[in-house]
Amino acid sequence: MAKKSQVEKGKGIAVPAESIRADLIRGAILALLAVLIWCAVYNRWTGESWQTPLTYRSEPEKADAMSLFAAVKAASQGHFLPFFFTNIPELGAPFTANWDDFPTTEKPLICLTGLLASLIGVFAAVNFAVMLGHVLAALAFYTACRLLNANWTWAFAGALIFGFARYAFAHALHHLTILYYWHVPLCVLVGYWAISGEGIKWDGRRFYIALAVAFITGVQNVYYTNLFAQFVLFGGLLQGWRRGWRAAVPAGAVIGTAAVAFLVMNLNTIFYHMAHGGNDQAVTRNYQWLEIYGLKIVDMVVPPPDHPVSFLASWGAAHLKEVVLAPGELPPSGYLGIVGLAACAWLVVISLRQAIGREKLPLETYFILWILIYAGVGGLNGIMGTLGFQLFRATTRYTIFILCIVLMYAVGYLSAKVSRDKMLIYIASVVLTALALWDQMPPIVSSEELATTAQSVASDRHFTEEMEKRLPPNAMVFQMPVMDFPETPAPGVSPYDHFRPYLFSQHLRYSFGSDKGRPQQHWQESVKQMQQLNDLVTRLEGYGFAAIYVNRGGFTDKAEPMIDMFKKMGRGDIIESEQHDIYCVLLKPAAQPTLPDAN
Q: How far is CA 30 from CA 156, 227, 440, in A?
């Protein structure tokens, strides 16, 4: 007789053998344990360490962190709210920066983090948000497994493994919205419900839970919403084929809820484009990125180069040097871990055995096969990309769905096969969890690394404080080299590096930070083309700029000769950072400045 997947064994929502109170207590213990593990990995035990960001400027592949800090800072000032246009008066000088061209579905996450930042500071708030992402992932996995009537011990172990996946550490702070994959187990759960048995019915608790999950998913990263909608769509089509079109309607309602939530979160972008026209430059996508960032099976197997086992770390490092297509996003995020790979291998063995015996395959197998067909390099998403639909370029992110599915399968299988000997379960779950965490977690952050990051932060803070002492309130600072925003690095300068002084400012305005492709940004391009520094300074002072901020990394000569030129022009009042990577030249702004042409 065919073995059934865990979801096919129950009717409706399973009632745990233990009371809800017991599960709440276990959930609290799980959350506390996750917090302690996170603090241990990142060495965040003191108030000072919490005020130090997990990353700042030392890791180029994590440069997007500056963009997150800026968004949280804007949210803390009330400039980044759902349903409203996103205008930041401190950026985009002499105009006001606008971020409505770049759709942001995850505004609630940024806004809540910004609210916390107004109380404890940007860096501490973002650190807390990162930690909470791990905690929520563990809790959601545990909840989904318990709703499938899994043994609580196996569910608890799987929750810790899922909550501290390598995927989470790879994205972490610089991809906070990607790190918030916590709802993926609930998405998989709803996908199970939609496809199995009689599917989701109007009058069942499944339907209301599915609607809640759909709404939560709709306000999270669109990659997760995309795959969730596909799973539910397949369920609706299957139920419609089995029992008539009315049976597919609840699944349609679930998909519709996710779609409405997504649209509501992007109303500002929709209305802004209606009022000001489209802007293709703000969000640029090319087909090549669908291959570079596409899902590759090898990336799920090859360990990261910082693996605790030396020969595995060497394997991972050698692979990074040899690949033609980068392993998705960096740092590598696809590695499933020893336990995840073992669960995947076991699912493959079971599936092959049942296929040979012409038995029904586990539903989890179909889910994973679909992900590979859709998201793999050259798959269906790639085909759609050749036709111009290139929104989902980083399908390597769907490895977290694969990990979730195989872990949920393993928890269900072990719950069914190994459930009587409690001592064996406790010992095995502890051993597997310890093995997985040791395998998946990056090296623990040392006190020296923490101090190095804190020094970089202190250098920028002191530099900005000195600027604010020397410049009047609302003074405008022109930033060099001229850079477009977003996603547009300059040689030697990461794409969001110009946000650094904004993070510490109280009353200054900066030229960087408004969406590219709009008229109010064109004037900077004309200034950028000016050959003579004298002309540049005269033009900027005429516009009312009180200072020029220079990032040395954007100049092959580290902008050293410019200092002498500024001094010869009588602009020798210069502020330099403690780490000598940026400096600021004070100007003599016109008493009655004129705005640059924004047409």
A: 7, 28, 18
